Amino acid sequence: MIVPNSSWTFDADYAGTEQYDKFRTALTDFLAPSSVDNQSLEGYWNSTGRFEAQNASSSDYMEEVYGNLITYYQWTNFGQPWYEDYAAQHEGRLPFVSPSPLVRWQYGANNVSEDLFNDGLAKKGYYQDFITSDVLIKDDTTCSSAIYAEPANTGSTSYRVRRV
User: Fold this and answer.
1) Spatial distance between the Cα atoms of 58 and 96, rounded to a whole number of angstroms
2) CA nearest 80: which of 94, 68, 91?
3) What confidence tens digit (pLDDT) does each residue in 51-101 have?
4) How does DSSP classify residue 158?
5) Which helix H or strand E contains 22, and what residues bound it?
6) What SS3 state is found at 162?
7) What is the DSSP letter of 94?
8) Alpha-carbon distances of 63 from 23, 124, 127, rounded to whole Å
């Protein structure tokens, strides 16, 4: 079981600390793992030589991948064909699109080329290989040799937590 200690360090005033600690204790008690590794994903990335191979931390390496993949894919596979079809049926007008997908589609249309999309796919594949070969290693009996548990936020990183 992999439970990086640095990821479980919460802001002093974070209301979720007790719930996260209870969850971590209950999960560890339930699974009774043979070992608990406190290394973070970044630690695995570094210890496997991938930092040197890519000359980047895993977060820097993957920084724009998700955004580039979804914006380009959504635009080229749905947005653009839908716009064209709609315009053909409605005297060249464009349909109303809610602001959230509209921003993604515009970004994908104007900022992400097919080459950048393909680069993102390659990076995603490289990172997937890292996870499956160095972190959550396949085990024919139990499916994987590890479980990776990390909280979604530590109090100051959540978009849902409003600081005043």
Assistant:
1) 38
2) 94
3) 998 999 999 999 999 999 999 999 999 999 999 999 999 999 999 999 999
4) -
5) helix 17-31
6) coil
7) P
8) 29, 11, 12
